[in-house]
Amino acid sequence: MNEKGMTLIEILASIVILSIIILSMLTMIVQSSRSNAISKNMMSATYVAESTMEELNRTVALSTDLVNFPSELNKLTKSDGTPKYTMLSNLNGQAFFETTVPGYYVYIEANSSSGSTLVKVKAKVYKDNSKAKIEAQMEMLQAWKKL
Asked: How many Cβ atoms are within 10 Å of 66's Cβ, its own excluded?
């Protein structure tokens, strides 16, 4: 007897093998898309931190000390003319500021002891002002403008 077709068992075995292959590929695709989403969010937050640090870098270069720094920072404005950064406090050589960028909340710390020629600036980027999870952080140590 010459059989030219496939038996039901062969067809079922083929379907099972194909299902196993497709499911393993599907999990890799899902994991890849999750990784891409996390990476995109991390890159966006890092870009916000980097842009903030560039602005602060220019502002520190124009300031002579931590007392003068907030007034220089207030010169940076949003498109509606309001100051871009809000000062939270400025006591004992520590100044704290905040700003919002679409989709992010940025918290800034500036530390400089009295008479010091250096300032340590730290920008922390969060999803919102609850500060639940930090998305990115950058720090720099820079010299004040010389008189």
From this structure: 22
SS3 48: helix
The alpha carbon of 84 is separated from its chain's Cα centroid by a whole number of angstroms, namely 18
pLDDT single digits (tens) 79-134: 888 899 999 998 888 999 999 999 999 999 999 887 788 899 999 999 998 999 99
Contact 55, 76 (CB under 8 A): yes
Beta bridge partners of 121: 110, 140
Provide CB contacts within 8 A for 45, sequence distance 6+: 104, 125, 135, 136
| Predicted model pTM | 0.78
The residue written with tokens 């075995």 in the block is: 13
For the chain, the structural domain boundaries read 47-143
Q: Which residue has the tokens 């498109």?
A: 79
d(CA 34, CA 28): 10
Query: HSE on the CB side for 94, CA within 13 Å?
Result: 5
Q: Which residue has the tokens 């083929």?
A: 14
Would the pLDDT of 61 be above 70? Answer: yes
